[in-house]
Amino acid sequence: MLIGIVGKANVGKSTFFRAATLAPAEIGPYPFVTIKPNRAMAYVKIKCPACERGLKCHPGNSPCAGGFRFVPFEVIDVAGLIPGAHEGLGLGNQFLDDLRQADALIHVVDASGATDEKGNQVPVGTRNPKDDIIFLNEEIDFWIQNILIKHFRTRHNQKISANEIAEKLSGMKITKEQILKATAELNYDLAKIREWSDKQFLEFAIALRAKSKPIIIVANKCDIPKARENAEVLKKEMADYSIVPASAESELVLREANEKKIINYIPGESKFEITGNPDEKQERALKFVKEKVLKVLGNTGVQQAINETVLNKLGYIVVFPVEDENKLTDGKGRVLPDAYLLPRGATALDLAYKIHSDIGDKFIGAIDCKTKRKIGKETKLKHGDIIKIITRR
Ligand SMILES: Nc1nc2c(ncn2[C@@H]2O[C@H](COP(=O)(O)OP(=O)(O)OP(=O)(O)O)[C@@H](O)[C@H]2O)c(=O)[nH]1
Ligand SMILES: [Mg+2]
Q: Which of 83, 208, 245, 364 has the fewest CB atoms within 10 Å of its CB?
């Protein structure tokens, strides 16, 4: 699974990326700091099933802290987008192409309104963040529309099936089901796609975008009072959107201080504890985050935005495979070492293939370790399931 971090230039995308991944990425107060995309692992936060049972866990792929498991998935931080990007303005097309494989988008906006449409700094409150939300959607829609027109308008007199369209669009992670749903909703005839008007292609693009690239909005820079005020207005005026007020910079301060063992901080929590010796600058930054962000917002919003995107918007579930259904251990006796993110509706067989293709090939059944019941390959898994896969030798 891949989540794209997108938005206008200079809004805090790379700051969000670094805060979420602790991977290096350049940050700067001007547009187009990021040119080549940054990729790294971010983490969904869920309760650790071992800790919940009072067991000592042995985390493998998913670190455990404070009773929470952090389950990895990939994020990509791309170049900033400016109006006209779909026509190649700014770093337009390159940026958009980097997003083809994204399953969902985290759209970072500068809620303080301190960046103009091209990402240049302007006084706080100058720009309405609502305009940023609308323009990014439009850029993505026009981009998809262009691809659709390029692929499908020029075909001569041939009928075209949803399968063929899906094949052409599979590189954009658009499925046949999404194509069929979009055309049914719009009441368009796929067989006549080459005769569609520009407007029809655009409406089709909008419907496909909504289905294949769900978006959540991060109202960033909420350490600035005007940003918090704007975030509240956005929530009211754009109630159809999932909007998470955030301060990526504050999360980065906390995550880096935690790495340096200056503080003990669990991502997404409302407090931290000083455990080392911060210098004067660090102490000031930590005090600011505590008083002006955590006390006011409750948390920095970064982890909340990640969880909201993966678990709610995309509806992914986390499942724990084990080999011993009683001790909840793997073959080496480690308690609940690994956690996997799977799409909604994933089955026990999907989990087997996710672990290893060999395990998938040799799958003969599975055990739901919570109920101790045997389940078949078709059984749909639930969030938090602990599953033993049975394979033939
Ligand atoms: N006040 C405040 N400033 C922030 C926050 N997040 C990022 N910034 C600042 O915003 C500026 C841009 O940050 P970047 O992370 O480089 O932004 P970007 O969107 O990746 O920019 P491009 O790659 O140039 O498109 C920097 O000066 C950051 O320090 C935040 O939460 N609060
Ligand atoms: Mg950047």
A: 364
CA of 252 to the centre of ligand 1 (A): 11
The sign of the dihedral angle between the CA atoms of 202, 207, 208, 212 is positive
Task: Look at residue 305 in the predicted model and tell me its pLDDT.
Answer: 98
Same domain (yes/no): 366, 219? no
Same domain, yes or no: 208 and 186: yes
**363-372, long-range: CB < 8 A, 24+ apart:** 363/389, 363/390, 363/391, 364/390, 364/391, 364/392, 365/390, 366/390, 367/325, 369/322, 369/325, 369/328, 372/325
- What's the mean pLDDT when you consider all of the chain? 93
| CA 140–ligand 2 middle distance (angstroms) | 18
Q: What percent of the chain has pLDDT over 70?
A: 97
**Is 361 a residue whose pLDDT tops 80?**
yes
Q: Are residues 372 and 269 in the same domain?
A: no
- What's residue 90's pLDDT? 63
In this prediction, residues 89-96 reach a mean pLDDT of 65
> With contact defined as beta carbons under 8 Å apart, do 132 and 230 qualify?
no
34 phi/psi in degrees, rounded to 5: -90, 130
Which residue owns the Cα nearest ligand 1 atom 30?
A: 221
Give tens-digit pLDDT for 379-391.
999 999 999 999 9
Main-chain phi, psi angles of 341, to 5 degrees: -90, 130
Nearest by Cα to 310 from 235, 374, 216, 238: 216
Both 195 and 151 in a single domain? yes
